[in-house]
Amino acid sequence: MDLYFRVRSAVERGLTGAEERLLRESPPEPRSLLAHSLRVSRLSRRLALSEGGDPMVAALAGLLHDVGKFSGGRVLGRGEDELASAESAREIVVGCGGGEELADKVAEAIRWMYSGRYVSPEQAALHDADVLDKVGVHGLLVGAMKWALRGDDPLRFVELRASQFLTYSRNAERILLTDEGRKVAGRIVGNGEEAIVRLLEEVGELFSERFEVEEAEVEGIPVLVVARSDCGGGGRPEVILRTKRGRRGGVVLEVEEECPGEGAAPISFSFYLPII
Ligand SMILES: [Fe+2]
After folding, report:
1. Is residue 193 one of the residues assigned to a domain?
2. Structure confidence by residue, pLDDT tens digits, 232-257
3. How far is the CA of 248 from the centre of ligand 1 (A)?
4. Is 11 among the domain residues?
5. How far is the CA of 123 from the centre of ligand 1 (A)?
6. C-alpha angle 42-97-115 in degrees, rounded to nearest 5
7. C-alpha distances out from residue 123 to 76, 100, 110, 111, Å
8. How far does residue 194's CA lie from ligand 1's centre (Å)?
9. Cα gap 139→127, rounded to integer Å
10. 177 and 81: one domain?
């Protein structure tokens, strides 16, 4: 095995170096957040129209809902995110000549988007558009593309992200606030669930792993946890679920998957539970 790892290190140095040189010469433009904002804007407008809301407020809210994500030179988390985005959105709308009244409505929709309740047609439309962008085969693809930008492979994606994707898919229709949003979810969510189950099978096959989907209920919310079904040399991993309070009343689910003794490396990840 020593030879294998020596060759692997040489390949790692060679390929990483080559990719780094290539990226220096023609760096990719990071546009995934802009692309997400444009998609959410378009869908948010459509959902607001179906709710009898103001399509311009919803479209602007969609466009601006993530502008505060990196405020003050750091990445904010849920809660802080919406507040910072609402603040920046207000300034941008006013700065672009949108007027105070419009700016206030846009900021309000963003501020309350994850309050878990129906505050206004525009806020509900924005919330649903943001959720719908992350489910279905499309949501799976978007998630995987973001993952690929960080240089990780599909096995890692399955190990660390599949649980969150399945949990949000399972709860999508209950999370959504608009009728039209629920209709869209009804048409696309199942596709995403089917696709990720197929992905688990394929990744399992190609990486010689086996995955199982376990169902649990955490704080009254149905949760799906994807875990390895064995530890390589036999034995099942122990899956421990813990919760902690996140920002603005959100609940963070922490998942730890540990193999006994010298088994495979532990896996741990966490995500916000959907607000129902
Ligand atoms: Fe978003």
Report:
1. yes
2. 766 788 899 999 988 767 889 999 99
3. 17
4. no
5. 13
6. 50
7. 21, 18, 7, 8
8. 24
9. 15
10. no
